[in-house]
Amino acid sequence: MTVDQKIRVIDRLRLGFAVSIAKSVTFFVRSLRLGAASVLPGSIARRIEPRILELLSQQVKNGVILIAGTNGKTTTALLLCSILTKKGFRIAHNSTGANLENGLATALIDNANLLGKLNIDYAILEIDENIVPKVLNPLKPRIILCLNLFRDQLDRYGEVDTISKRWTKVISTLPETTVVIPNADDPTLSYLGQQLPQRVLFFGLNEPENYLESIPHAVDSIYCPRCGHPLDYQGVYLSHLGDFTCPSCGFSKSKPTLFSREWPQILVGLYNKYNTLAAVTAAQELGVDAVSIKDTINHFQAAFGRAEDLVIDGKKVRILLSKNPVGTNETIRVVTQSSDKTTLLVLNDRTPDGTDVSWIWDVDTEKLVERGGTLVVSGDRVYDMALRLRYSQSSVESHINLIVEPDLQQAIATALEHTPIHETLHILPTYSAMLEVREILTGRKIL
């Protein structure tokens, strides 16, 4: 046996040992109902075999698909998984939303046998925008979906420009066989795609009738990424996503591969049109026919907490994850376009949410207050949210019933009491709050 052969045998043994230990941890954690075991097994396995992401991803038959961005990763990944699963492909997917290195490793380990062997066609992995530079080389993705870049958890990541520069640097080093699918309506990502040597397919909207009346406060990147001059917008769809040109250097929006009006969308909200188009562009690149894609879209079920509809005590409840300015503005748009008059906002500041909640002052809560109705607020930072709404009241003419309830279970019960039987209660929680809301709604009776 040569030295190289011995090294390969040792690698296989170490990989098998790491996977076996991780699977044992998963079994005990889930058996004892200590959690979802979506992170710890991967953390332990990576200590035993630091190259586990590389060694497992190499075994994926048709390649790894990475989905990166601030908003929409979970929904886009779930839709693409649904499309490919319906066509009979075997998929590995970090469906719990654990999108850092340990979560990615756990998702692949869950689909491996005790010897560390994978028998799957695709790995669809949503990844946190900040770890893109860390995982691209070990995973060697076949396709990268770049959804958007917004401000999110400023205490951890900083501003949009910092993230975009990291993305540009690392993606340009990948093989030319990699397919990159950026959002054409995001100036930073549109410019990124125009500079890459890889094959690039863009997705975006061509629907001027859906322009916002004005650029919202929660705008992140309205300057030309090439020369720094303010962009001229023909219109914006949300935040800084829209149709734009630079009057100084001529930079303009890239042409989307798909004509957006030809495709139905999943769920509610214009932001889900973007998620739909991203998944459709990837699916068509993989050879899936349009009929199958549209059928999957029409039967799509929401991921937990993302426009998820529940029925509680005979009343409809819709959970709309709201974790940053852009996302919250879009969920507020969904609420204000409905005829429903009761909304529950839940603001937490835990690690999954980001400890800096100053972003709520970039949210256009005035639109929510202006329409009237009942607003119930809760969460760890309940008084911050209540203060934000009080300031909104002072700037617009409104007649709202503002209820401040620190106890989340009581807040949910109060919001349900104020929701007429024929209306829907909209709940807008941050990430950790969303998990608590779902536990209360689906795991226990309301007061």
Short description:
The chain has 447 residues and is an alpha/beta fold.
SSE topology sketch:
Blueprint (H helix, E strand, L loop, with lengths): L2 H29 L8 H9 L3 H6 L6 E5 L4 H14 L4 E3 L7 H10 L11 E6 L4 H8 L3 E4 L7 H4 L2 H12 L7 E4 L4 H9 L3 E2 L31 E7 L2 E5 L25 H15 L4 H9 L7 E7 L2 E6 L4 H12 L5 E5 L18 H6 L2 E6 L3 H14 L4 E5 L3 H10 L6 E6 L1 H13 L4
Parallel strand pairs: 1-3, 1-4, 2-3, 4-5, 5-6, 10-14, 11-12, 11-14, 12-13
Antiparallel strand pairs: 7-8, 9-10
Helix pairs in contact: 1-2, 2-5, 4-10, 4-11
Explained architecture:
It contains 16 helices and 14 strands. It is of the alpha/beta class and 447 residues long. The chain folds into two domains: 290 residues, 3-Layer(aba) Sandwich (UDP-N-acetylmuramoyl-L-alanine:D-glutamate ligase), CATH 3.40.1190; 135 residues, Alpha-Beta Complex (Protein-Tyrosine Phosphatase, Chain A). The strands form three sheets. The protein has a six-stranded parallel beta sheet, sandwiched between helices. Strands 9-10-14-11-12-13 form a six-stranded mixed beta sheet, with helices on both faces.
